[in-house]
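USER:
Before I trust my own judgement here, I would like a peer's view. Write it directly below this note and I will take it from there.

ASSISTANT:
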Amino acid sequence: MFERFLHRPALAIVISLLILFMGGLAINVLPISQFPSVAPPSVRVSVSYPGASAKILIDSTMVILEQAINGVPNMRYMMGDATSAGEGTIQIVFEPGTDPNVAVMNVNNRVQMVKNNLPPIVEREGIIVMQNMTSMLMYVNVFSKDPNVDQNYLYNYATVNILNEIKRIPGVGRATILGNRSYAMRVELDLDRMRAYKVDAEDVMKALDTQSMIGSPGRLGQATGTTSQTLEYVLTWVGRYKTPEEYKKIILRATPEGEILRLGDVANVSLGSSFYDLYSDIDGLPAAAIVLKQTPGSNAAEVIEKVKEKVEEIKQKSFPPGMDYAVTYDVSNFLDASIEKVLHTLFEAFILVSLVVYLFLGDFRSTLIPTLAVPVSLIGTFFFMLMFGMSINLITLFALVLAIGVVVDDAIVVVEAVHEKMHAKHLGPYQATQEVVREISGAIIAITLVMTAVFVPVTFMTGPVGVFYRQFALTMAMSIVISGVVALSLTPVLCAMILKPLDDKGQRGIVGAINRGMSKIAGQYDFVLRGLLCLILGCAVGVAVYSLLHIEIVHEVISEQVELSDMRIYVIAGIAAVLAVFSFRSTFSGFNGSPKRRSPIGVFLHVFDRGVEMVTGGYAAVLRRIITRRVMTVVVIGLFGYGIMVVNKVLPTGFIPLEDQGMIYGIVQTPPGSTLEYTNAKCHELQAICEKMDEITSVSSIAGYEVLTEGRGSNAGTCIINLKPWADRELTSKQIIEELEKRGTDIANVKLEFFEPPAVPGFGAAGGFSVNLLDKTNSGDYTALGEETDKFMEALGKRKELKGLFTFFAANYPQYEIIIDNDVAMQKGVSIRDAMDNLSIVIGSTWEQGFVRFGQFYKVYVQAAPEFRRYPEDLDNMFVKNEAGEMVPYSAFMRIEKKQGLNEISRYNLYPTAPIQGAPAAGYSSGEAIAAIKEVAAETLPNGFDIDWRGLAYDEAKAGNTAVYIFLIVVIFVYMVLVGQYESFIIPLAVLTSLPVGIFGSFAFLKAMGLANDVYCQIGLVMLVGLLGKNAILIIEFAVQRRQEGLSIMDAGVEGGKLRFRPILMTSFAFIAGLIPLVRATGPGAIGNRTIGTTAVGGMLLGTLIGVLVIPGLYYLFAKFADGRTLIRDEHDEPLSEIFER
């Protein structure tokens, strides 16, 4: 079937060109992101209750909403958070794959069911139900060097001129400015004057409501159908006031005698800010901090670029003098650096693979054929990525790097087989290719099917990890399928066209003409061709030397003798490249067919070829001595299986490693009750420490906001610490954190913790783990929860696997409880409702009506002036109007008691909880950290208390043995494919039982390199099953063929091993060479690179070196057992299972 391509070479070439063309088009439209979209969808419900404490907000609003929302379809878990700033949020996290729009609709329906049960003020403030955008995109700080510009101006300028523009950019899911510094009309009441004039807060609110209002007088002269007139008049009215002067003129009381009491007589009115609950600055300058989050599925790099272009455009057109902006965090920095690193790795891997192939084949023409298969397979894969709705991300790029060593295999097998035929039977390229296509097409199909079959079961995995597996698996599978197509279409045609016959005489037809034409062209342009080839290969040698000197172990060993600076490495690599150019010049002096002069490279290739032949002969001799020793074969496999269990017990486990992303969060926690100004001062102290470190470029601080839960509080602060590019600093982010922790001890009376951004965007705000301590006693005793939290944190702090333990749960926040004597209040004619409403306005602040200015809607806030609400004693000087219109002091019927309580209350699945954040200690994985927390919880928590997880830790803790099950499914799937290929249930066992050797190699190398068994490792193991299975198939396929030709089982096994020894070494070492850049990776994405590279290199190296000795023995073992067994003897015999048939 595939021989037809030899008769239609143009068709074979066009097929490959079409694959390249479609892949090239797909590259331009594929979205680019750091990882696939794996974060589960979530919905956010936000409420506001001005003046309410966290406890009041929980009891009056949050509990009602949570009970209604609980159990919404596909809900994973629900988290609630209420603060004493009167703000509450409920985040509902859904199972991956849930339609976020449907989730929002379902949650909103349940909210509407209980809306009428909520306090009227909560309804008036608004209940916001929206999709929760969890993927951080960037922070933009707008600042000014003009000392006259304050934070209020910056906030409102950014709101009016920048924020609205950014929100319209496709891909921006959420854009907000931290804090609420929007303009507001501040009505600050003078309580002394109000008491003198016998006016209370309610009188002020009524006056605002009745005088600053919207009116709609209508039109004069409207048509009535019976009369007509020439003109129609629209009646207008100024309506709501817009300036402080207008509000000051509002009348509170008027008498017939002409006495008028105006708002300006009892209050100071000014255009201020809605709240003063947050300070933001960058490098000591006030700033408006804009937070942007990404819409799921959008192209992060493209969105960020559009945002930067838009802000730069606004800056050029409208920024006032002195104003500027700075991007303090940008996910594209890490994304671009990581992708650039992987692309460099891709190029290096391609060069190294080509060099290994050239080393084994010793012929440029033969090397050219398999290297042409690589770009076709890789670029063509992008088309299928587009068809399956995937993106260009680190996982798919990892797959392509690994695929380089895989996709070249099929072409190598074909080329090597053609060489073998040409030398063994003295055939021309065309005739040799014909025979090879007939013989080897089955093996190519089997290899392609097995390699693809390895990844098919993985695509059915669910959850976030399933998305990683699926994108990796589909990328690998598609590239392998394309490489199979190329190996059976383009590669044979290229072999017939490009390879030089041993004797050119007698070669006829189009192939002969092409060969003769190539030789003629080579003769005419011999000098140019040799020059280009020498230059390319010389550069490749220089790159290889440069890469070798950057391998950590090599670098350290050489540096002990000679200092290796970057400049010296460049010089050494350059000298190696120049020497290689002159050596290759001699090697390729006979490219046009003339006799070659032996050069050092030529001598080396000749010696290497002779060495491989000697090793092959020795290998065959060893095989003849050990192949029949079945007990030894079983013992060896058993030992490697036992070794896997031993190493696996001591190998750290993990989920997704935390990478150096070039940014660190500094979390500042001052003592409970600290003022915002005090917390801001501590943030500035941390800023000063950071600015003294060379590795840090800028620091922006936000007092009153903590990034972990996106909550607000006067004793919380966050510093965003930006690091220099990876190439410009020697310390990693973890080392910088350790240094900051040491220097941070100089800051008194504050708790500091440092976290990196999350490993996967969308899973929380920071890296590490997130665990909740739950109080399931339903006692409502937060003091007990606080005591258990302290004990639990103390026990966790003793575990060496954990560090950075942190919680904002504190039951010792200073509070005063108001106690009202109802009897006395009623005797004095005071309504309890009126008394509390008055306090809510005077102390808590409330807004009434609003106004439009600068094209924006702003609120009018009424509150006592600051000097009347500073201390608890100020309550004694506050009055409320009774039924008789008299001013009654609160001290007459009310007292306060000092106590401690919660400033912020968190809930998890309806239970009170203490959220805890932390990270694995140096040298420990996230899996070990989670295991340690589970152990501590089991040992220390009493009945009624439990833990649960959120964010990425939720999936890791719930994952269990999913990877083991997937691995078993992969093995079973491969087994079934091989059964169909060999028409035997026994022979495929020889392939599967050879796998423990390579798996042990992977685990052993991971342990030696100090890496963890995480998602990258598991992906590498799945791929390893296919690669090691491919090597076994190459040997067993030819052994089966030789057995069918009449050889004994032993001779067939030896012959299969001997014939496939060279191509197995070539393909395996080509694959390993392609992974060297991953193993030695540094900088962005280094941990993932090293993990997947080490897994594959360790498994492939040991699986190849030991496997070539074990696989023939396994074939002999199972072939002996299967010999003479068949499912159906012949048409007259009764069909029997091969287990019982002899």
Q: What stands out?
A: The first helix runs from residue 4 to 7. Residues 504-515, 586-597, 1131-1142 have pLDDT under 50 and may be disordered.
